[in-house]
Design brief:
By secondary structure, the protein is mostly helical. It is built from seven helices and no strands.
């Protein structure tokens, strides 16, 4: 289905014409972004070496459920907002950049969890995280800040 078709769908029309649906989707999206970013940033800062007395594994176990909850709010609300203005978004280069950055964040997280995080016991508490963990944390923070910036710029269109 084309962007115009998505926008012209019953869902796209309803969200665009409703007094409350688009603002509700936007509020859920922003709440999800806050949950996702804050939970990821806490772990990323630990990976950068802050609060080394905290177990990286334990912190990950505590914040990742919040990350998944944030993502669970972001996806449907983002799809709803996309359905309302699909043609405009697809035509905007920042939208493609935002989607690419989100994919890059996913790859970074997958590589981190499949790689250096599996050997976390050697640096879990008190020891400085290895360079690969610090790089993953720094890259994650940079990517997610960029995703948020793209989203804010798209909202101003």
């Amino acid at each position: 289905m084309s962007a115009g078709g998505i926008e012209a769908s019953a869902v796209g029309e309803a969200i665009r014409q409703s007094l409350w649906l688009f603002p509700a989707a936007k509020a859920l999206h922003l709440g999800g972004v806050a949950l996702l970013f804050c939970s990821i940033a806490l772990l990323d800062l630990r990976l950068l070496g802050f609060r080394r007395q905290l177990s990286a594994r334990r912190l990950a176990g505590r914040v990742l459920p919040w990350t998944f909850l944030g993502f669970a709010l972001i996806v449907p609300s983002g799809l709803a907002m996309f359905a309302a203005y699909a043609s405009d978004l697809v035509a905007h280069p920042l939208f493609a950049l935002k989607m690419g950055l989100i994919a890059a964040a996913g790859v970074n997280a997958a590589v981190f969890h499949a790689g250096v995080f599996r050997r976390c016991e050697s640096w879990d508490v008190h020891a400085p995280p290895p360079a690969a963990a610090r790089a993953a944390g720094a890259l994650s923070l940079a990517i997610w800040i960029s995703v948020i910036a793209c989203g804010r710029l798209l909202a101003q269109r």
